[in-house]
Design a protein that fits this description.
single chain; 310 residues; mainly alpha; 8 helices; 5 strands; disordered N terminus; disordered C terminus
């Protein structure tokens, strides 16, 4: 019940608008990049193709995230967005490497470019990418949307660099500025995507969320009145903003009906301090044997009564 994601139609509308604008700009940058003989503009076209794929993936992921949990998908489809962000980041890294090799090749075989055309097309790109990045900013708490936001922010900065490079080529005639700009764009793409790749990989491998410290969580749980010990503690992310916890908690021997206050205190502390709402707590009594950190039931005692064991 905690894990059912609610649909966000406004987010979907923003992504739809982003797809239309990006598709139009991809066609423009590729066409005019060929006309201007500008590797920087062609690189921008390739980068924006990856942006378009990223937006499509994110849109599909947002749709799936809104679907409720089922008997087959008990946690729902929350990781659809995480998977989309992982694919987006991996694609960007591959693209940045390709741009880097193409730029190095351009140093050995320079090509005359048309700086005026570069600047006009890049100016349109700054306007479009900046608008999309602004619209996505309010949803950037979600790692899926943040991956697209970084795509568009990187595009805004790189197209601004193309304008500056076009002006420099226009006034100096130095054609090597174009591949240098391409290398800078590739470096920026690589830097922005590496962080997303690390974060999504940590979620997919069910690592501890980067903003949570396991020791601090254990300490807070142990401070609840009635808790003797906390062990076998696991915390992982179901999605970019949804965390789950499972743990064994040792308490004093007491009737089951009296454990409710302890459980309530633990859940409230986890929710208020760490925003963890999906918890699985297993109580154990003092003196229970443990195996590999998990509670093991005591062995049955054999009682000799007329040859029978009880």
């Amino acid at each position: 019940m905690h894990m059912v994601a609610s649909p966000n139609r406004k987010m979907q509308r923003v992504l739809q608008l982003s797809m239309v604008l990006t598709l139009a700009y991809v066609g423009a940058t590729f066409y005019f990049g060929l006309r201007a003989h500008s590797l920087a503009l062609i690189s921008e076209a390739g980068h924006n193709v990856s942006d378009l794929l990223a937006i499509v993936l994110s849109f599909v992921a947002v749709y799936f995230q809104a679907r409720p949990a089922t008997d087959q998908k008990t946690f729902g489809y929350q990781r659809a967005g995480v998977l989309a962000a992982f694919v987006n980041a991996a694609t960007l890294i591959i693209l940045s490497i390709w741009i880097g090799f193409a730029a190095i090749h351009r140093f050995s075989m320079p090509v005359a470019v048309q700086p005026r055309l570069m600047m006009v097309v890049a100016a349109a790109g700054v306007l479009m990418n900046g608008t999309i990045a602004t619209l996505l900013w309010k949803f950037s708490g979600d790692v899926n949307i943040r991956s697209v936001f970084l795509h568009m922010l990187g595009d805004t900065l790189s197209t601004a660099a193309v304008i500056a490079g076009g002006a420099a080529i226009y006034f100096t005639g130095m054609a090597w500025i174009d591949p240098v700009l391409s290398l800078l764009i590739a470096g920026m793409i690589l830097w922005s995507s590496a962080g997303i790749l690390r974060e999504t990989l940590n979620i997919l491998l069910e690592g501890t969320p980067r903003n949570l410290q396991l020791g601090e969580i254990r300490q807070v749980m142990a401070s609840i009145e009635g808790v003797v010990n906390v062990h076998d503690l696991h915390v992982w992310s179901l999605g970019s903003q949804s965390h789950a916890l499972a743990s064994h908690v040792t308490i004093a021997e007491m009737p089951m009906s009296e454990c409710g206050n302890i459980l309530t205190g633990i859940k409230r502390a986890l929710h208020d301090r760490f925003h963890i709402t999906h918890t699985t707590i297993q109580f154990e009594t003092i003196g229970c044997e443990t195996t590999h950190g998990c509670a093991a039931p005591p062995e049955l005692e054999a009682v000799g009564t007329h040859g029978h064991s009880h």
